[in-house]
Give the backbone structure.
Amino acid sequence: MQLDQFISIPDQRRVVDAIGDAEKMTSGEIRVHLTPKCGDDVMKAAIKTFDHLKMYKTRHRNAVLIYMAFESRKFAILGDAGINAVVPEGYWEGEKDTLLMHLKQNDPATGLCKVIASVGEKLKDFFPIEDDDENELSNEISYEE
């Protein structure tokens, strides 16, 4: 399955726009990475992708990766050290539940957009936008076949 069969091109644009909107409120960074398949350990694959995308290089270590292996039907949400130090216990599980609900409804774009908006709000609470804020990471969806 190709990426545009999983998420249409207009829906991909919705996701990228949601990232841009969320990041207008925070110095945090959000990325979405899609791939058809991953091995048994989705978190291990997400960590590898987080490192490959150099998401740990943000000034406040406040990047969040939403990693999805759509043919394997697995996903993970991974926050860097700065955000993980301040979000309440169980926060990421709640975001995963939101995304899972929309995946079950075959509406991944809406699920991604809702999670991105929620993560943006949480990042804003702990890492508000700064006067000298730079977009440290691309807002585009990264994809590997």
About this structure: DSSP finds six helices and four strands in the chain. The first helix runs from residue 3 to 6. The first strand starts at residue 29 and ends at 35.
